[in-house]
Design a protein that fits this description.
Layout lengths: L11 H4 L2 E4 L6 E2 L2 E2 L3 H10 L3 E6 L6 H10 L9 E3 H10 L7 E5 L2 H9 L3 E3 L8 E4 L7 H12 L3 E4 L5 E4 L2 E4 L1 H12 L4 E2 L6 H10 L4 E5 L2 H10 L4 E4 L6 H5 L9 E3 L13 E2 L5 E3 L2 E6 L2 E6 L7 H17 L25
Parallel strand pairs: 1-4, 1-13, 4-5, 6-7, 6-8, 8-9, 9-12, 13-14, 14-15
Antiparallel strand pairs: 2-3, 10-11, 16-17, 17-18, 18-19
Helix pairs in contact: 4-5, 6-7
InterPro entries: HAD-like_sf, HAD-SF_hydro_IIA, HAD_sf
Pfam family, one: Hydrolase_6
GO molecular function: phosphatase activity
């Protein structure tokens, strides 16, 4: 698959048969809805796109996630939710026999998933667990992290549901599971295996369960959602409603680049134009253009009725990625914030 952007002449909801939708920063932020999320997903369903909500959050059970989504105007069934807790339980199956003891450090969702996989859940390192399964829970404290460290020091296999360093909430970014896992890793010197994104395993599980042939990953984080899409060779849509910004897209490493970029989930209902290179060296996307000159990004946007600032992001990504892939060094200081939703703020002479 291309190392750059992809284009679609039809709305993405019509070009794909399954969307693997992240939750935090995409469908909602904390307990608050994200503008355009319900509208975009409802419209996508009407166009025949099936949805599976794939989340690195292992603290909650699928029933709870589906209930929250439904309460925010996004009707969902528990069977449409795939959590990192379920992925962690599947990873345990690759090495442990059923009935083995597992120290679970996390929320109810992880306890339920590990139990359903046939393991005996314990709470102390003194129970001599064969593995530690660690996932995020908002009430996780030092005592639980200490038990995990004791067990790992004694040889237990450390499996993390995910390694997200931060978690988007209504008040800002809070420490994620990766930060808590880091405390255990710092105490033991042992690097855990991770079941969650950016590993593509959860995506593959969801695709197999749905029997899909043309899936699309949707996420807000380049280092997890979109890196997982690249690792799994699955097209990925980056929506600019969460952790990673439009500027991050332009500066993204090849393994974290999105295939599509949209302001929010309503971008599922739109075609996605592919930037093209002009004879003058500009990468042009409708009314926006970008190029790299002497290692610096040069931007131009001609505001017109209905002009989409995301086109400028697409053009900037095409120019920057082409330059980097050609062996040039891009001056990160020349890449502005590219404030999506604020027309006219970013412009440079052509």
């Amino acid at each position: 698959m291309s190392r750059g952007l992809l284009g679609s002449d039809v709305p993405l909801a019509e070009a794909h048969d399954l969307a693997l939708v992240d939750l935090d920063g995409v469908a909602y932020r904390g307990h608050e809805p994200i503008v355009g999320a319900a509208e975009g997903l409802a419209g996508a369903r009407l166009r025949g796109l099936r949805l599976v909500f794939v989340t690195n959050n292992a603290s909650r059970e699928p029933e709870s996630v589906a209930e929250q989504l439904t309460g925010l105007g996004i009707p969902a069934e528990p069977g449409e939710v795939m959590t990192a807790a379920q992925a962690a339980a599947e990873m345990l199956r690759t090495r442990l026999p059923q009935g083995a003891k597992v120290l679970v450090v996390g929320g109810a969702g992880l306890v339920t998933a590990v139990t359903a996989a046939g393991y005996t859940v314990v709470e102390s390192a003194d129970d001599e667990p064969a593995a530690v399964a660690q996932g995020f829970a908002p009430d996780l404290g030092w005592a639980q992290l200490a038990e995990a460290a004791y067990a790992v020091q004694r040889g237990a296999w450390h499996v993390a549901s995910n390694l997200d360093l931060s978690l988007p909430t209504a008040r800002g970014f809070a420490p994620g599971n990766g930060s808590l896992v880091g405390a255990v890793r710092a105490a033991t010197g042992v690097t855990p295996d991770s079941a969650g994104k950016p590993s593509p395993d959860m995506y593959r599980m969801a695709i197999a369960r749905a029997g899909a042939s043309s899936p699309l990953v949707i996420g807000d984080r380049l280092d997890t959602d979109l890196a997982g899409a690249r690792a799994g060779d699955i097209p990925g849509l980056h929506v600019l409603t969460g952790v990673s910004s439009a500027r991050d897209d332009v500066l993204a490493a090849p393994g974290e680049r999105p295939h599509f970029i949209g302001a929010d989930l309503r971008s599922l209902l739109e075609p996605h134009p592919l930037p093209e290179r002009s004879a003058e060296g500009w990468w042009v996307c409708r009314g926006a253009a970008a190029r790299v000159v002497d290692g610096r990004l040069d931007l131009h946007r001609a505001p017109e009725p209905g002009d989409d600032v995301v086109d400028l992001v697409r053009a900037a990504c095409a120019a920057a990625w082409d330059a980097v892939d050609s062996g040039l060094t891009l001056d990160a200081g020349s890449v502005p914030d590219l404030g999506v939703g604020e027309p006219g703020e970013v412009s440079a002479g052509r």
